[in-house]
Design goal:
alpha/beta; Rossmann fold; Zinc Finger, Delta Prime, domain 3; 2 domains; five-stranded parallel beta sheet; 12 helices; 57% helix; globular
Amino acid sequence: MLYVIYGTDIDKVREKASALRDALTKKKPDASLFTMTGEDVSGERLDELVASQGLFENKYIVYADRILENRDANDVVYERLPLMKESPNVFIMLEGKLLAEAKKKLEKYAEKMEEHALKDAPKKQSNDIFALADAFGKRDAQSLWVLYRKAIDEDAVPEEVHGIIWWQAKSIALAMTGLSPVETGLNPFVHKKAQSFAKNFTREEMNTILSDLVRMYHDAHRGKHDFKIALEKFALDL
């Protein structure tokens, strides 16, 4: 069973997720409680928690704290959503803001999705955020920087900008494999567009970009650099 609690009001999200965890552990005091973060999520660990059962209680309670922040492991999580849904164990996923693609995948398997947004959260971004992704695909550094500055000036959060660039980069990398849309899991329109962008990068360059984006994300959340500045430098250096 899978519960997903997410949103821009991360304090409220954490409060609700913790309350659900505490209520379940109180109701099932013999159940084993496991906590997982983005830094220690793995396919092997998820497989174990999906299938295993406690000695005295047939359920585990798994508190997954922002595991989708580890973008390098997103596919590992998404592939196991059907198993998490059918598992006798309970999975509680606590996440921040979710992009539409992630939200759609989670909604398909979650028993319940609960969102908590800040009251003063910025309005939904316009199509400029997708124009930003296209600018990256075209390797148009000037347009990418202009659109990035516009998004930030309109109060877009760095995670959202980073997320759309990561999505585009990963789509291009998948298109470079020569596999069909069905084989890559990409929407046919997205796949065709990614193929047209692929000519602007070598595979080595795209692998480096993906690695840089992962490192940038984690370094920003560890306080090693300012996320906004790192993204701006990335746009200018493209």
